[in-house]
Amino acid sequence: KSDSTYDYIVVGGGTSGLVVANRLSEQKNTTVLVIEAGGSVYNNPNVTNTLGYGKAFGTDIDWAYETTAQEYAGGSSQIVRAGKALGGTSTINGMAYLRAQAAQIDAWEAIGNKGWNWKNLLPYFKKSEKLQDPANYPFLEGSGVAFDPAYHGFTGPVKVGWSSTQLNDGLAQKLNATYQNLDVPVPYNRDANSGDMVGYSLYPKTVDADLNIREDAARAYYYPYQNRTNLHVWLNTHANKITWKDGEEVTANGVEVTLSNGKKTVVKATREVILAAGALKSPVLLELSGVGNPQILSKHGIATKVNLPTVGENLQDQMNNGLQFESKKTYSSDKSADYVAYPSADQLFPNSTALGAELLRKLPAYAAQVASANGNITKARDIYRFFKIQWDLIFKDEIPVAEILLSASGAAYSSEYWGSVPFSRGSVHLSSADPTAPAIIDPKYFMLDFDLHAQAQAARFIRDIFKTEPFADMAGAEITPGLSTVAAGADDKAWSTFIYSKYRSNFHPITTAGMLPKELGGVVDTSLKVYGTSNVRVVDASVMPFQVCGHLQSTVYAVAERAADIIKEQS
Ligand code: FDA
């Protein structure tokens, strides 16, 4: 292996990496190597079990990245999970297949990424998808699942749909009736993947509906193609850094790796090195390779190859909390209810117009606070532009401002929820020149007060759902947090004690190698090439310039599909 040479090296055999490796290796005369730190989880029941969400957490296929103490959120650190396996985080995620509001992807273009808009990305959502029509699965009768064929792909690699574990006892319909009975109803939305997410929907998942097992990136993009002689995968192999050609231009010529036997070696790339190690790893690999903020690099004795100070900045995630209520009915644990509501600002906030006006006044101060928290590496005026776009998305385009999930198990209803578009931004940076050292991850959860307000308001909204018929009649007392812990009518401050002590990362980190114009702090250009390099790209969740209201994987698949086309066109 040690003297091998490939056209392309893809670092990270996860959700995005396997898409790009698959598509590039469709070209018969092109050789592709995937370097993956984890192993195969093809037969791992913690992965395949469609009701096994959480079973892989804390096992050896979970990177379980730890954040710094979160000073704005009570001081505790958080664990941010990510898959360490062929298939990456798609092997441990919640399998929800939910895209974005069209206007959110259009905002990628509005900030300066020409050609990156919903219309151009939709064909790639479809290209990656194989929707399994629920009409062909009799066990879904009565479940209420639905979709609009205009927005789906039926011949792509990733199986999407509903399996035999889908609950079909009428709960979905009762929840819909409840949403329609709210003072400000949340309309029924037949298909939240159409680019319009607002409303109440039954969402599809990445699942093999015939076999009732999880669909992941390896099952979709690798195993059916593993006999391609020009596609190699090195498992249990850790990428340490990019190696560079001598010369004026900054050109990668390989990757230093630590093999499964502990030996270090360099594998050569004649065309490109493509980073797909995830939003909390790809920026750190850039730094280990000398691409980043010279002040940070020099602290660790790393020579600066490209002065690109925003590598690892602009980290955005969401914060996840949950409420629980007693249920009068007992639900079996071998079924799952996958119901989502995406309220717009008008539907979530009782005083949306006034709130919007107040927030607009605060944006310059928010931007200054974010900039000053990172030593003005990102500029307040740029962050203000990002925030104004986000404000327009919320108050003009009326994107969803929260995600409210509902599930039923045993004698309880659980509702996980999060504000969809927090404003707080943090960073991820290397802590050492040792490539295996944990990075310094600081998402700055709840740094800005709108984020707490949205999180508290979503909790109030859930309480309203449980006070509204027919749900009011089906549910008993609130278990978590319970009215004795957070009183009815509690203000944000009173909610914050519960929220800060119980929240977790929503595991949707993005923008750590953001696709943005260089002058706005971008790390990659519209062809996903790292500024200042001639042949290094990032193709994973790191590049998304703004948060999406859906979950990340569908957009990660679509972006990676487009990335592969761009790479093919340019080489
Ligand atoms: P991904 O993590 O998939 O790939 C990175 C790969 O690089 C991994 O295989 C990793 O092992 C490898 N790697 C890292 N460092 C390396 C190194 N130095 N050398 C070699 N290899 C290295 N989304 C969704 O749409 N629906 C959902 O329900 C959920 N639920 C959910 C739950 C949980 C617990 C998590 C953690 C995440 C989700 N998500 C989700 C998010 C979604 O799954 C996630 O954003 C994408 O899968 C990320 O894809 P990437 O390609 O960016 O990274």
The best one-word shape is: globular
Return the CATH architecture.
2-Layer Sandwich
User: What is the residue-mean pLDDT, rounded to a whole number?
Assistant: 97
- What small-molecule ligands were found? dihydroflavine-adenine dinucleotide
Over the alpha carbons, how many angstroms does the gyration radius reach?
23 Å
**CATH homologous superfamily name?**
Glucose Oxidase, domain 3
Strand content: 15-25%
CATH topology: Glucose Oxidase, domain 3
Q: How far do the termini sit from each other?
A: 25 Å
Catalogue the unreliable spans: none
**Main structural class:** alpha/beta
Percent in helix: 25-40%
Count up the helices. 15
Total domain count? 1
> The biggest beta sheet, please?
7 strands, mixed
Number of strands: 23
Main CATH class: Alpha Beta
Features:
571 residues, alpha/beta, Glucose Oxidase, domain 3, seven-stranded mixed β-sheet, six-stranded antiparallel β-sheet, 15 helices, binds dihydroflavine-adenine dinucleotide
Q: Could you explain the architecture of this structure?
A:
Helix 4 packs across helix 15, helix 10 runs antiparallel to helix 11 (380-395) and helix 12 crosses helix 14. This protein has a single domain (45-223, 315-570), classed as 2-Layer Sandwich (Glucose Oxidase, domain 3), CATH 3.30.560.10. The protein has helices spanning 15-24, 45-48, 102-110, 118-128, 171-181, 217-221, 282-288, 294-299, 345-348, 352-373, 380-395, 449-465, 471-474, 492-502, 552-570; strands spanning 5-11, 32-35, 65-66, 79-80, 129-131, 158-161, 199-202, 205-208, 213-214, 231-234, 238-244, 252-258, 264-275, 291-292, 306-307, 319-331, 339-342, 402-419, 427-429, 440-442, 475-480, 504-505, 536-538. The radius of gyration is 23 Å and the shape is globular. The protein is built from 15 helices and 23 strands. The strands form six sheets. Strands 1, 2, 10, 11, 12, 13 and 23 form a seven-stranded mixed β-sheet that branches. Strands 7, 16, 17, 18, 21 and 22 form a six-stranded antiparallel β-sheet that branches. Helix content is 27%, strand content 21%. It is α/β, with parallel strands linked by helices and 571 residues long. The site of dihydroflavine-adenine dinucleotide (FDA) has 40 residues, from helix 1, strand 11 and helix 15.
